[in-house]
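A further point concerns the way the authors explain their paired sequence and structure data. Each protein is reduced to its one-letter sequence and a matching series of backbone shape codes. An entry of this sort, consisting of the sequence and the corresponding backbone structure tokens, reads as follows:
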Amino acid sequence: MLRDAALRVTRPRVAVLSAVHAHPHADTEAIIDAVRGRLPKVSHQAVYDSLRTLTAAGLVRRVQPSGLVARYESRVGDNHHHIVCRSCGAIADADCRAGAAPCLTAADDRGFAIDEAEIVYWGLCPGCSPSP
């Protein structure tokens, strides 16, 4: 994947990419912990730099719902949105019903060439929902 994106293959990049694939919607601290399981001496800065590079290359997607820290996912190149729990902050993917991006059409695009619409659904996850 790294070579296909014209990126140099480094141990931190491989470890970060693996961590993001293994832990969807993980925040930076969780990714650092996962990477340190493979590379105990990796620096915070190396992980941050790798996340920035992988995101810019389109190998990783950065998601940051309002009021939450940034999370990272490996599901890129498709048209999906997110569901966020108001209580615990859990995030889940929500496929777009309409298919191709953007799955919503603005009433007035104001001359922009819109290629994506981002939706965040908010509610309570099954673990935080009151039992009936």
